[in-house]
Fold:
Amino acid sequence: MYPVEKGVLENSVAYFHTPSQVAKSIFFYLICVGHFYCDENYYLKRKAYDSFLLMYIKAGKGLIFSDEQSFSAKAGDVILLNCHKPHSYRTTGSWETLWLHFDGNVSTEYFDLISTRFGCVVPLNDSVIIQERLEQILDDFKNSKIINESLLSCHIQRMLSEIHTISAAYPHDEHDQANPMIKAITYIKNNYNKNISLHDVATHLCMSIYYFSRLFKKSTGYSPYEYITMIRLNRAKYLLKTTELPIKEITFQTGFNSETNFITCFKQHTKYTPSEFRKIPF
Structure:
C-alpha cells in the first residue's frame, strides 16, 4: 500500500501485521514494515508508538531526536529507536529507507545494550545483512506469502545481533595486533593461568585502569574481570571433560587462587560443582 503522508513519495510502500498471541508471548514480532522514498518535507514526531524502530538508510541523510539528543544519520547507517518514548526524525534533503517496527521477546534489553554502547545511530561498515533481511521481509509481504512469525522473529534477532556486533572499536580481526583490545585479549589468553590483575593488563597496554576497563567493556561487552573469568572457566570445563586431573590441579592450571574459590565460581556460572559437571554426559 502507498502511505499518504507529507514528504513520502508515491513509490513508497508500507505493510502492516497483527501478531498472534504466541508471537507476543515468545517471539520478536513485527508490527509494520516499509520502504520509503522521502523528500525534504518529510518530518515525523511522536510522543509514543508502542514499538521499537529499526531503520536502514539506503540513500540520503536525516536527523534523529531522542532522549533530548540529536543524531545525524546518512546512507549506510542503521537507526534503532525506542518509540515508547518521545522521538522524532526528518530528512535533510531527501532519503530512501527500509524500516520496520517491532517489539516482544527481549526487545527492551537488546535496545538498552546497543544504545548504551553505540547510541541510536550505528554505521554498518559495509555489512549487508540488515538490508538483505529487510528486503526479504518486504518481499514476503509484497508477494502475499503466508507470514511465518517464527522466521520473522529470527530475521529481527539476526539484525539486532548484527547491529550489536558492529562498531569501529569492536575487535573483529584477531590478527590485528594494532588494535589495543586485541592486544588485551591476547595477553589475557596467554596469561589467564597466572595471577594476573586488571592493573597488569592495563599496564601492558599503557592505559589507565579506568580507561582500559571502559574501552574493553564497550568493545567486547564483558568487563575485563568477566572476560578473564570466562576464559578460565572455559579451560576448566575442557580439562574436566577431557582429562582425569584432580580438581585441585585444574584449579591452579586455570589461574584460580584456591580450590574453594574455583568451586564457588564454577557453581555460580554453571549451577554445578566441577565434580558434578565432570559426570554429566554430553
In short: The longest strand covers residues 87-104. Residues 224-242 form the longest helix (19 residues).
